[in-house]
Amino acid sequence: MADVRDPATGPPRAVLRDGPTPKHAQLREILRDLARSELLPGSPVPSERDLAARYGVSRLTVREAVGQLVAEGLLVRVRGKGTFTTRPRVESQLHLASFTEDMRRRGMRPETVLLEAAATIPPPGTAEALGLAPGRAAHWLYRLRKADGAPMAVERGWYHADVLPGLLDHDLTDSLYSLLAREYDVHLERGTQTVLAEGADAETARLLGVRPGSPVLVFRRVSTARGTPVEDMTSWYRGDLYQVTMQLDRNPEPAGHRPGGPDTGGNR
Question: Per UniProt, which keywords does this protein have (predicted)?
Answer without folding.
Answer: DNA-binding, Transcription, Transcription regulation
